[in-house]
Thiamine-binding protein domain-containing protein
Amino acid sequence: MIVAFSVTPLGVGEDVGEYVADAVRVVRESGLPNRTDAMFTSIEGESWEEVMDVVRRAVAAVEARAPRVSLVLKADIRPGVTDGLTSKVETVERHLAG
């Protein structure tokens, strides 16, 4: 499964990069395949429990320093698919090239 999520600290001002970095650090240290862009961090794992544990810990890292946290999450639950983070993008690129 792939989960794309965004953790936003509230009540800390406009510059939230250092708080978001706390969440991304948790994701990267998890060892699961992941990508971060300007809007979301995506993480891929074998099970709901595995991926959601990382999301929970990423939120907790931000929550430890911010008085309020907003979480937006989208999940693609598709058993048996691996390397979806790469293969989905490669499929789109292949269509663009053709």
